[in-house]
Specification:
The chain is of the alpha/beta class and 382 residues long. Helix content is 38%, strand content 16%. It has a seven-stranded parallel beta sheet, with helices on both faces. A six-stranded parallel beta sheet has the order 8-13-12-9-11-10. The radius of gyration is 21 Å and the shape is globular.
Length: 382
């Protein structure tokens, strides 16, 4: 009901976020029920190489998450999988672990992982590198915002996995540097986000170039009709696994900040000076507006970084790492630039500009209140 009402409200005032019913921004956090997940497997149970098991343990993984517990075994058995899971559920390891094992035992296997954003691609590559330490298994990262020539060079070297965004895949394929017919394992990750960002035709293009004989994995937080149709033309007799979290975490305390004619930047600065605003993610609608806000906060002495479309990839990754490592405590972001962000211990999400849609709102505030910790989401309203 909550979702339906919000969607209807937004559609009536399309492109006019000020028309949103502000009551949707106000909801107290609830105590998360303590539900003990008892996995059916341990990592030692899975039929994977001992070296891979050691690297999993070194990474600090001891007990599989629900998506890992349900998905690793069918992927190991060569099944196609539809995984319904949010960011932050451990799905990256759920597909990387069995596919890495597949490569270890059969070097003719090549993997293509397609994701919506550069940041998510980098995060997946970092996890891949940790899992494959000292195993002579190699990845190539193919994303926009950085030199395509280095990626072309890397694709000419021996590699087992390509982790890439749709636009860069299409560019490399059209130039003849990425032979998609060679990749007999494909992962489409966060498909709903790729749809939101207008990548549907790119995805169809990529699928059309893949070999018929392949293992296909398809991960999405939601499965609306268009995505479901794509999945079932793309996969063969898939196993469907759903460990989707509640859309809005119970642990997010939602409220509004009424502007009442004041300068929003002044209000934000007052908030950031308050106790408890330790790791704050601020969302806005435009690159220009967020760039301006970042400059204002810097002039006022705040440790701030920004990610948006006008930043190149190295700048965006540096900003993200600074925020993760606590070198800055405020990260300014636009919606598209922040897709797929998975950051621990965000204390506050501030909607400096109201979201354009229900889905954007869910995406934004889901960056806080994780791992049963209480987070706070504040939305500026006139």
């Amino acid at each position: 009901m909550y979702k339906k009402q919000f969607r209807q409200n937004w559609q009536r005032g399309a492109n006019k976020p000020k028309k949103l019913n502000r009551s949707f921004y106000i909801k107290k956090a609830e105590e998360a029920e303590e539900k003990t997940f008892i996995p059916k497997h341990s990592f030692s149970d899975f039929l994977i190489s001992d070296e891979l098991k050691r690297n999993i343990l070194k990474k600090g993984y001891t007990t599989p998450t629900p998506i890992q517990d349900e998905a690793i075994e069918p992927i190991l058995f060569g099944k196609d999988v539809i995984g319904l899971a949010n960011t932050g559920t451990g799905k990256t390891a759920a597909f990387l672990i069995p596919l890495i094992n597949k490569v270890l035992y059969n070097r003719s296997q090549k993997i293509l992982v397609v994701v919506p954003t550069r940041e998510l691609a980098v995060q997946i590559q970092e996890e891949f590198i940790a899992f494959t330490k000292n195993m002579n298994v190699y990845s190539v990262l193919c994303i926009g915002g950085v030199s395509i020539y280095k990626q072309i060079h890397n694709l000419r070297q021996d590699h087992d996995i390509v982790i890439a965004t749709p636009g860069r895949i299409k560019d490399l394929e059209k130039q003849g540097h990425l032979k998609l017919f060679k990749y007999n394992n494909i992962v489409l990750d966060e498909v709903d986000r790729m749809m939101d960002m207008g990548f549907i035709n790119d995805i169809k293009f990529i699928i059309s170039r893949l070999p018929q004989n392949r293992q296909s994995l398809f991960f999405s937080a939601t499965l609306p009709q268009e995505i479901s149709g794509l999945a079932h033309t793309f996969l063969k007799n898939p196993v469907t696994i759903s460990v989707k979290l509640q859309e809005i975490p119970l642990t997010v305390d939602q409220d509004v900040i009424r502007v009442n004619g004041r300068v929003k930047a002044d209000i934000l600065c007052e908030l950031l000076l308050k106790q408890g605003f330790d790791k704050v993610l601020v969302f806005g609608r435009t690159k220009w507006g967020m760039n301006k806000l970042s400059a204002i906060l810097e002039r006022r002495g705040f440790k701030v970084a920004a990610i948006h479309g006008n930043k190149n990839q190295s700048q965006r990754q540096r900003a993200l790492n600074q925020f993760k490592d606590g070198l800055v405590n405020v990260l300014i972001a636009t919606d598209v630039a922040s897709r797929g962000l998975d950051i621990d211990d965000v204390t506050h999400v501030i909607n400096y500009d109201e979201p354009a849609s229900y889905d954007d709102y869910i995406h934004r505030i889901g960056r806080t209140g994780r791992a049963n910790k209480t987070g706070i989401a504040l939305t500026f309203v006139d």
